[in-house]
Amino acid sequence: MKNTVAITALIALVTVSTPALVWGADSVSNAEQAKRQVAEVPALQEAVASATGHQKASIEVKSTAHQITIVVVNGKLNDGTTTERTAEASKIATACVNVITGKPDFVAVVIIHVDYVKRVGNKSTVVEGVDFNKAPDGSFKLHLT
Q1: What's the rounded Cα separation, in Å, for the pair 6 and 138?
Q2: Which of 28, 59, 71, 90 is the most exposed place for a label (fewest CB within 10 A)?
Q3: Which residues does 95 contact at the CB level (< 8 Å), separation at least 6?
Q4: How far apart are CA 78 and CA 85, in angstroms?
Q5: For residues 73 and 57, what is the distance between their CA atoms, to the nearest angstrom?
Q6: φ/ψ of residue 16, rounded to 5
Q7: Sheet holding 67-73: strands in order across?
Q8: Hey, where are the domains in the chain?
Q9: Residue 75 phi, psi (nearest 5)
Q10: Residue 66, SS3 per DSSP
Q11: pLDDT of residue 10
Q12: Of 104, 78, 109, 107, which is closest to residue 93 (Cα–Cα)?
């Protein structure tokens, strides 16, 4: 009886701890992936600025293993329409794809998110966010809600 309880406890412990070990390993790998992506931030800023006519300083880039976020700060389309912002966000997504295609550090990226932000001093207000999801063919498609 004591052996049965001990074996059951051991199996329960292994079952519960294994996912934690796997998740921990994945987060470390995601963190490493994001660190390696930092080297491409200037190229992404330059590509977005060239594609849109914005000043490079008004383009902020953040990335994680699975998402690239482009923030357009005080852009000319903050007072524009959703249609205009979506059209420009498509240009931004295309510019990002052109930079990251074929680079192993970006293979896990499945979302390109574009935020239009109004910033006064330290206060930022999101005007609109636009998402592009990776399709099975590897292209990024506008997410429609």
Answers
A1: 49
A2: 28
A3: 44, 47, 48, 50, 51, 52
A4: 8
A5: 9
A6: -75, -40
A7: 59-63, 67-73, 111-120, 123-134, 140-142
A8: 34-142
A9: -75, 165
A10: coil
A11: 41
A12: 109
Cβ atoms of residues 120 and 111 within 8 Å: no
Query: Could you identify the residue written with the tokens 């330290």?
Result: 122
3-state secondary structure of 85: helix
The tokens for 40 are: 């491409």
94, 99, 102, 108 alpha-carbon torsion, rounded to 10° = -70
What average pLDDT values come out for the chain (145 residues) when binned by 10 residues? Answer: 49 43 52 81 96 96 95 96 98 97 92 98 96 95 89
The domain defined by 34-142 folds into Alpha-Beta Plaits (3.30.70)
DSSP category for residue 144: P
Tokens of 3: 């052996």
